[in-house]
Amino acid sequence: MSPRTTVLASALLLAAFPAFAQTAPTVAREQVGNRTSENIPAIPPPLVEQLNRYQNTRGATFAGWRGDCMLISTRFAETAQAHRVCQPMGMREQLTFYPEPLAAIATAPAKSKLDGFVFGKDVGGNEFWQLHWFDLKSRNTTLLTDGKARNQGPLFSHDGQRFAWSSTARNGKDTDIWVMDFATKQPRTLVTEGGQWNAMDFSPDGKRLLVMKYVSAAESYPGVVDVDSGKLEMFPVDGGKASFNGFKFAPDGKSVYFISDEPLDGKAQEFHTLRYHNPATRKFDVLTASTPWDVVDLEISDDGKHLAYTTNEDGIYKLHVLALPSHKPVKLPELPIGLVVNLGFSPDSKRLAVTMNSATSPSDVYVIEPGSTKLTRWTQSEVGGLDPSKFVAPTLVHYPTFDSVDGKPRTIPAFYYRPANAPAGKKLPVVINIHGGPEGQSLPTFNPTAQFLANELGVAMLLPNVRGSEGYGKTYLGLDNADKREDSVKDIGALLDWVAQQPELDATRVGVYGGSYGGYMVLSSLMHYSDRIRAGVDIVGISHFGTFLKNTESYRRDLRRAEYGDERDPQMAKVFEEISPLNHADRIRSKLFVAQGKNDPRVPYTEAEQIVKAVRDNGQPVWYLLFDDEGHGFRKKSNVDYFTAATMLFWQQNLTGDGTK
């Protein structure tokens, strides 16, 4: 995700606001609890009622096994909490009841004497997660971390005696690896090399820990550390620089399975492949050499007999299981087309739980028995009383953009949600939804907003994966780096050209929508194409790369510099001045809605407030929404509901003509 608070330098202010700026429009401000809204009209009750069922859809995601029961994360009130389910389609027993949603959940291993789970929780979206132990027998909760630092990535050893995680507790800037003997709850630092480190997997005997230093989406470094002595050994990286994802010990505790795009036989690799390596025998295998797509995740059963992994094939996640040690594929049931995530083998290793999500069905948990075609559904989440048969499934389209590859126009993939019952001869308004990251990827997941736009407002939605998106190879991922940042904005311009060529789409009624880096893309698109875009919604977006890098939390700054460029470099600073929407606010003539969380540690709320002021100072009205109890995006149902209703009203007023101005 893209990464946050000081006053702007006077020189920057002069550059952003021309001397001939018009009188700023009058601002109508309303304060309701933790919500501040400016210029947002009252939401019409009929719209609230129309939205109600779409806003009451919910999903369930797998969080781990506890014996024959499993933990899931789902929302029944304001926020997602931990629940226990003990049989297929069984009752969901809610275990936690916090006003804040839970972050990562790690269940105690089956081989341990522990009965419970670790979970993370922050305050108001500030992402300074604290890790807590929840004991299922006593129902007591114990704080494990210091109450102040940012803590994430909880990981148990296989016997549950040791516990590792990542934390900024040492200096607030670096993300170190910490470890504790779980019985004593006494923490100590294990890896303090600087940068961002993550614990990946304990050896079967708990004496060694696989670790990873993350630099960027294209660069990470694996190693192993002796847990008792703290001795760190980094593994050589073929080619000197590569990206790694999953990293796990094989059942023998000596060899490893990992996901990487390292060169093979001296040849650069576009995609992440699943690999096996035994250092003792020097045996090395690429297990997915024939798959021209990224391997995303891997999981190994406790009995060491099966390995599960997923591939991302043009935005569709596919599940695979291999028998170990033969690496032969295992028969699986046919799964719905969509996403398969959160893999987890049961304690007896006979079952594999997964979370499945599709464009027409919210997330739910299913259980597979490797080697058979049996598929058992464990949860069935609600869709607000809507008729699922009327949900719109997107189609995958590819449109040409401005440059070429091997003499042919480069094409950009996009998912296209088209209203099913559009009146003949009537052109459809369009919302272009741009993902964040920037190395994110839009996927055909269940999207109640897209369904509401299609079925209730008659609006098409396009989700492009512009250059810089992950999932399409290393070259594509790097096409927007540093001074090529605006090339991804040109891909939106090319999409506007494509929209104009579609007989069913109305190129005069186009809106753009995006969060985080996608928010920057919204602002930049309005900066370049205000004559072709009617309106834009920017959620927690970057308005100036220089101020963003200066004010983002210190633990994120170097990670973001690796992606966007270093603002301390005069040449890069010049590029930032040229491409940042804040410096060209006078060119934003479309209607604008900016939404922000006050506690955002990644993109500070000052990024929102400075672009709102700059656009208003040029005579343009702006809707502005600020939640004091949210961070980088909105997670509390009442806040999400209000933001969604305001956004739909914004589209009605500016795209469909149905709202009252």
TrEMBL record:
Keywords: Hydrolase, Protease, Serine protease, Signal
Signal peptide: 1-21
Taxonomy, superkingdom: Bacteria
Protein name: S9 family peptidase
InterPro entries: 6-blade_b-propeller_TolB-like (IPR011042), AB_hydrolase_fold (IPR029058), Peptidase_S9_cat (IPR001375), WD40 (IPR011659)
Coiled-coil annotated spans: none
Lineage: Bacteria, Pseudomonadati, Pseudomonadota, Gammaproteobacteria, Lysobacterales
Pfam families: PD40, Peptidase_S9
Annotated ranges, domain Peptidase S9 prolyl oligopeptidase catalytic: 445-656
Organism annotation: Lysobacter panacisoli
